[in-house]
Structures are given as structure tokens and as C-alpha cells.
Amino acid sequence: MSHRAAVRLSWGLFALGMLGMAMTLAFGFGRGDSGAGLTSLTGDLIWFLSLTMFVPVGALIASRHPRNPVGWIFLAIGLSEVLSKFAYEYAAYSLISNPGALPGGGAMAWLQSWVWAPELTLFPFLILLFPDGRLLSRWWGAAGWVPLVWMLAFLGYSVALWPHRGVLLLRNVESFGIDSLAPIEAGLFALFPAVMLCLAASLVCLIIRFRRSQGEQRQQLKWIALTAGLGATNILVSEVILDPLDLENRATTLLGETLGGPGLFAVAAGVAMLRYRLFDIDRIINRTLVYGALTALLALIYLGGVVGLGGALRAFTGQQSNNLAVAASTLAVAGLFRPVRGRLQSFIDRRFYRRKYDASRTMESFSSQLREEVDLNALSGHLVGVVQETMQPAHVSLWLRSGAEAR
To answer: Whole-angstrom Cα distance, residue 321 to residue 361?
Structure first.
């Protein structure tokens, strides 16, 4: 395929995906019922919008690097999600909300029952091929081909679902309840852990690739590492902290799905592949570590103040109101923000960014010498030493201009 044809195809698929997304939202909000779907579940809506980010990112990558399969895989995953949700909302509108209003509701119900499979089984290949489109070794290809074999088996199963197309296939359960197909369903679900195992293997491959990488590719993989860390943090906070304490609500769900969802992964991968502000990742990781730790620490201080001080005030005054405890905790958090941030920044620089920390300390030392040194030759030697220590250049030359003469 020529470059011009690849550009036209990628942006044509982008336009198709955006049209499908708009029509999906129109059908979803148009039916306005309380059943399962985009209109009733905030998490599903955020997840859908996050996965549709794969379409523009894939179009950008494929149009710039048409020989790299990563962009086309992004497009395939995004279009699979759009088609799956569009088919579901169309079928629900045609078969449940307004029966008979639109033709082909049964066929759309059948389509949504299996068209989601590619978006799941292509993820291992996406990770294995990122960022240069080549496998780390041919043996790692097995981690991508096994899910594709499972997907082909699932597509064969979908052919057996065709006679049962209709409302039955809109049920959001693991089994459609069709007795004649129960053995096939059991076999597919028994093999599904192999797909998850291959996905885990692809992540291991990504870690190995990161450890072997250097220079530009290492910066590309840092973007993916950042999104992986945010996703793991989201799972830890939501499943281990918020859910057991019954603190999860619509706001925390929205924040968690945004920070830990696939949309952020798509944006990070797009930045890495297109190399736009690629080397800003070190600063972003630094700020993420600082402000993430700062937010967690201040939140603990605030909750501790509200609970502890509020309990003490209730025991002392006998009143149930804890407005004073809330006000005191808020003032304490506001007063601690700057000093705690400074200490966290210093600790993270020392622990994770030692070279930057040492360079900063070297520059501070040179600044103090600059104010006190009067010998020009000694100052020149100090300046060359600072440049060599902080910038580590191959060669250093220093010219000092004095009037018409230069040295």
C-alpha cells in the first residue's frame, strides 16, 4: 500500500469511527431507559469514550507510520469497541425501547454478542509490538497468537448464535442460557484464562524491552510505564481502600476511570509514537510522584484531624457537630502544603533523580563561590568543572572577552 493510500484509509476509518460513536451516544441517550448500557452506568460511558480514543490515536500513528502495525492495531481495537456499543444500543432501541421502530434489531443483537472479541485479543499483540512494530524475539509471538486462536474459535461459536438472535443476546451475563450451546460456552470460558496469561506475558515482555532499551525508545516506554502505574494505583485505591470503606461514588468512579482507563494509555502511546514532547516524560513522572504522594499524605492528615479532633471535641463538649474540627483540619492542610511539598520534592529528587539533584546542588555551590571568588583564573576553572559535572559534555571550551581581546 502506498503512503497516500494508507493516509486516506486511516482517516477514512477515523471518520467512520467518529460517526459510529456519535450514533451510539444518540441511540443510548435517545432510548432513556434504566436498563444496562451507556445511559445508566457512568463507568461504562467513561470506558466507552476512553476506548474510542484509540481511533484518533490509531489514525494519527497509521498516517505517519503506515508500515508500523501498532497504529492499525489501535484502529482495530477502537473500531471494535465502537461497533460493539453501537450494535448494542441500536438493538436495545429497536427491540426493547421502541419495538419495530428500526429494522435489523435481531441482527444487531447478534453482532454485539461477538464483535467485542478483537479488542480484547489484540491487546497482547499491541503490547508485544510497541513501539517499533517488531517482536522482541520470535518466541514472544506465541503470546499474541494464542489469543487470536481463541478469538477465531469464539467467532466460530458466534455462527451458532445466529439462529438465536434477538433480545436473548442482549443479556449482560457470561452465558446466554442456550442449553444446546452450553458445552461450547464452557469450553471457551475454560480456555479464557490462557488469553489472560498471554496478556500477562506480553506485559513481562514490555518490562524486558524497557530494561534493554536506551535513548529515545526508553523515553517512549516511560510513557507507557506511567499509565501502567496510574492504572495499578487506581485499582489499588478503588478495590482495596474505597470499596471496603464504602467511599466510592460517582466522582471517584469518574476520576478512576479517567486516570486508569484505556484513554490515557492511548494518549501516552500516541505521544510516544509521534515523539511529540517525548522527553517531557521525566518531568511528568516527577510531578506525578510529588503531587500524588502530597495528595495522599494531606488527605490522611485531613481525615485524621476530622476524626480525631472531632471525637475529642464531642467527648469534651458533648455536641455532635464537628465544624470546628473540619475548619482546623482545613487550616492545617493549607499551612502544611508548601513545606510538605518541598520536603517531598527533595526526597523524590534524591531517591529517583539523583543526577538532577546532584546537578542542582553543584549549581548552588557554584553560585555561592561566584559571589565570593575574585580570581578570574580560579573562577574559570570552577566554571569548567561545573559544566563537566552537570552537563557531562565530550569537550569544554571557555572564551572570556575583555574589551577588544578574547581569551
So the answer is: 49
Span 356-381, pLDDT tens digits: 656 666 666 767 666 666 666 777 77
List the grid coordinates of 69: 502495525
H-run or E-run covering 406: strand 405-406
Q: Regarding predicted confidence, which is higher, 33 or 109?
A: 109
As a whole number of angstroms, the longest Cα–Cα distance in the chain is 97
- Which residue in the block uniquely carries the three cell numbers 480525631? 308
Q: 168, 170, 163: which is closest to 89 by C-alpha?
A: 170
Distance between terminal CA atoms of the chain? 59
Q: Which residues on adjacent β-strands are paired with residue 405?
A: 402
Query: What are the Cα distances from residue 30, in Å, to 90, 91, 102, 134, 242?
Result: 10, 13, 13, 44, 33
Predicted TM-score of the model (pTM): 0.72
Cβ 360 vs Cβ 378: under 8 Å: no
H or E segment at 389? helix 376-391
Instruction: Report pLDDT digits (tens) over 150-159.
Output: 888 888 888 8
Q: What is the grid cell recorded at 181?
A: 450451546
170 Cβ partners below 8 Å, 6+ apart?
A: 88, 91, 92, 95, 96, 109, 112
Across the range 344-353, mean pLDDT stands at 73
Q: Which domains are seen in the chain, by residue range? A: 3-276 (1.20.1070), 293-352 (no CATH), 356-406 (no CATH)
Residues forming beta bridges with residue 406, ordered by sequence position: 401
Which residues contact residue 230 at a Cβ distance below 8 angstroms, ignoring those fewer than 6 apart? 259, 260, 264, 288
Contacts for 351 with CB less than 8 Å, ≥ 6 apart: none
Distance CA 330, CA 350 (A): 30
For cell 510497541, what's the residue?
130
Q: In the chain, what percentage of residues exceed pLDDT 70?
A: 75
Query: Do the Cβ atoms of 75 and 133 come closer than 8 Å?
Result: no
Residues in the chain: 407
